[in-house]
């Protein structure tokens, strides 16, 4: 039918774009379905023969009809010829039917057709029994963290990264894509490149179409990377040690950056990276022996990968910081506790006796005035006679009248002194009770006399 021919041509063009062999391709055509994409793809993987390498989906409209197309790549060639005409997919409680389109010619004689009864039996089988999903499939259309663009031009554009930043991000993501086929990794790397960096990869692909992704990164390293030789980088790696004030997790990250450069230079095989990283980390940690002890007691193994090692080191650092904070709170010595208690007691006492201190200070100022006679001066042109000065007539030591504190031989009585002082201060100006009047003192001007 014409629609099948249209779908087939779309599938062939799609395979060329995704670099998928036609003999290994399985094209499914069905009605659009509103379910989460990961659930749909997992259900398709369960229903198809084991050995899928990649799977992608997209919606298209042909002859006014909207369709959902799913392109699958299988490890074996011509596996589609024995699958029949339709396949039933169970997604949760829902069922969906997809037409199987072969993208090769000359194998129609081996195709087994599914009748309506066979299709019903197949759908019933899927309802009653789950088939195990292939653990090595990859969905090329699944969302992933895409690296920023890199062109190799200086200065880099606003939406581009410079070489060191870009390669660090890409290599970290390649480690995350451990189950992704290398063909897909190469495609993702090419997507993030612009000329002239993309031209270098294009030339490499012409020379060796099957070149692995590691060759891509090595070629870019030669063109844009560090000019240090592999031997120089190795010497720097083996002499690396933890710096004073540097966290162990920061030291691990620094070792990882050197290792990536060494691998790109071809001085170390990728499968040996974990071993050398762990050994140099153990040799280079100078300021946290307890951390190494805890690492040995953990279940990391002898050579964990970078992500596992970094994650474990950070957890141990957080635990040590938490314990250190708790110890600092309860580690006051006995003497420090006594000093703290006495200072708090003194503070409380000073707060309660604040009024007494103020009174004593005012008493001292008054007594000093009594010992020094006031200096009187007459304003020019005025017949001025100063009023009598008033002073307390009791001792500031014992509180008894008739003498001063310097001549006192009695026992001190602060309570009586405070009481009399308060009465004196609170007395009204016209009240002269309890005051001494110093008479017979002449002013500096004849004729003026204290009253």
From TrEMBL:
Positions with biased composition (Basic and acidic residues): 333-347
Region Disordered, annotated ranges: 324-357, 432-451
One GO molecular-function entry: nucleic acid binding
SMART domains found in the cross-reference section: ZnF_C2HC
Domain CCHC-type residue range list: 395-410
Key words of the record: Metal-binding, Zinc, Zinc-finger
Residue ranges of coiled coil: none
One Pfam match: PNMA
Name of the protein in its database record: Paraneoplastic antigen Ma1
Organism: Holothuria leucospilota
Lineage of the species this protein comes from: Eukaryota, Metazoa, Echinodermata, Eleutherozoa, Echinozoa
């Amino acid at each position: 039918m014409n629609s099948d021919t249209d779908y087939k041509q779309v599938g062939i063009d799609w395979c060329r774009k995704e670099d998928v062999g036609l003999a290994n391709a399985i094209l499914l055509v069905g009605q659009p379905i509103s379910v989460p994409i990961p659930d749909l793809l997992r259900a398709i993987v369960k229903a198809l023969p084991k050995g899928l390498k990649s799977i992608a989906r997209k919606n298209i409209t042909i002859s006014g009809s909207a369709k959902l197309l799913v392109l699958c790549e299988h490890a074996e060639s011509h596996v589609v010829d024995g699958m029949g005409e339709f396949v039933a997919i169970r997604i949760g409680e829902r069922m969906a039917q997809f037409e199987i389109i072969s993208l090769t010619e000359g194998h129609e004689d081996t195709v087994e057709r599914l009748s309506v009864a066979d299709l019903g039996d197949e759908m019933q089988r899927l309802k009653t029994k789950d088939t195990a999903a292939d653990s090595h499939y990859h969905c090329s259309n699944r969302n992933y963290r895409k690296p920023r663009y890199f062109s190799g031009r200086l200065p880099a554009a606003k939406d581009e990264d410079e070489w060191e930043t870009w390669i660090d991000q890409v290599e970290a993501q390649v480690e995350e894509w451990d189950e992704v086929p290398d063909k897909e990794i190469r495609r993702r790397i090419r997507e993030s490149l612009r000329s002239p960096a993309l031209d270098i990869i294009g030339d490499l692909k012409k020379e060796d179409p099957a070149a692995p992704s590691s060759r891509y990164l090595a070629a870019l390293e030669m063109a844009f990377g560090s000019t240090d030789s592999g031997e120089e980088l190795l010497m720097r790696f083996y002499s690396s040690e933890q710096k004073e004030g540097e966290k162990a997790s920061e030291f691990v990250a620094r070792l990882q950056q050197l290792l990536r450069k060494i691998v790109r230079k071809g001085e170390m095989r990728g499968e040996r990276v974990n071993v050398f990283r762990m050994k140099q980390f153990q040799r280079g940690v100078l300021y946290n022996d307890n951390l190494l002890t805890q690492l040995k007691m953990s279940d990391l193994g002898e050579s964990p990968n970078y992500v596992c090692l970094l994650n474990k080191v950070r957890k141990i650092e957080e635990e040590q910081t938490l314990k250190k904070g708790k110890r600092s709170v309860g580690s006051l010595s006995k003497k420090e506790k006594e000093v703290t208690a006495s200072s708090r007691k003194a503070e409380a006492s000073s707060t309660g006796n604040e009024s007494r201190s103020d009174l004593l200070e005012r008493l001292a100022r008054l007594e000093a005035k009594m010992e020094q006679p006031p200096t009187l001066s007459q304003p020019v042109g005025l017949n001025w006679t100063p009023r009598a000065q008033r002073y307390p007539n009791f001792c500031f030591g014992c509180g008894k009248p008739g003498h001063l504190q310097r001549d006192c031989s009695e026992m001190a009585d602060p309570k009586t002194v405070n009481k009399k002082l308060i009465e004196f201060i609170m007395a009204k100006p016209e009240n002269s009770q309890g005051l001494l009047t110093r008479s017979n003192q002449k002013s500096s001007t004849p004729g003026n006399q204290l009253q």
